[in-house]
Input
Amino acid sequence: MSNHTLSTLFRRRLLPWLAAALTLVTGAAQAAEWPKEVTIGYQKYGTLIILKSRGDLEKRLAPHGVKVNWAEFSAGVPLLEGLNAGRVHFGVTGETPPIFGQAARGSQTTYVAYEPASPKSEALLVRKDSPVKSVADLKGGKVAVAKGSNAHYFTLVALRKAGLVPGKDVQLAFLPPSDARSAFERGDVQAWAIWDYFYSAAEADGARVLLDGEGLVDNHGFYLAPSSFLERYPHVVSLILEEITKVDHWTTATPAAAAEQLARDLGGVTPAVLERALRRAGFDPQPITPAIIAAQQRIADTLHEQGLIPTRPNVADAIWNWTPTRTAAHSQH
Output
């Protein structure tokens, strides 16, 4: 067959096929499916509150007809209960709640990104007049902590290092932050394991730091989404992470301004308290790595050994591979 014949065959048969295929691919990209609404789960601190206040996510999603709902939770475990039930489509927690979320029956908990380690953002506090000088001195006492929180795992690690057994040497009083603070101030508990900004606020009111998480825990933050939502709307999750990245970069570059913004949004908390918390936190969402998976698996193994979860989840089974765009990775806002 001559070259001329081959060229004619290519033009007549293959080019129309390639054009049709390109049209289909382009059409599919343009016709990406968008949900009618997306619900973001957040807690009473962090850059999601700044994103909510600015309305940047709403501006990105409005052209696609997507309504953004915001749901506040007292801690990570109830947030992930909402996520597993399909009421929350995207949320942020500390490093321990996802283990409880993944261990739940019918779990949809999926890791989509993590924030850099911030071990100094949680601490074991005692009252300023407390005779307790070390973790070992807590033997026979009681520690307030939110069950399933990052501070819960931190407490287990701190007690173990001091040779103390939870439930035997030290009792854990499982309380949400507001109730824990009241119990702490009344003297109903000898110590309080807590994260920022509650930690920073208690410091400002005179609480003494027995120890923080440095050298004991990583204290990563995690962004999570239900597997069913990720299957249908991965582009929406990527878009959300892009907007979080912009806010995170702005917060890192201008912590004082970010603290002022948070103070306005939260009310009742001074910018100084929030700036101290922001300066010891890690920001900038990153794709999940093998090292992060291994660290989370160690937490899962510990919680299972302690009898706190019914099964030992395999963290690697709940990972979504996010590829940040160059714009998201290098943006300033």
Summary: DSSP finds 14 helices and ten strands in the chain. Confidence is low (pLDDT under 50) at residues 3-30, 327-333.
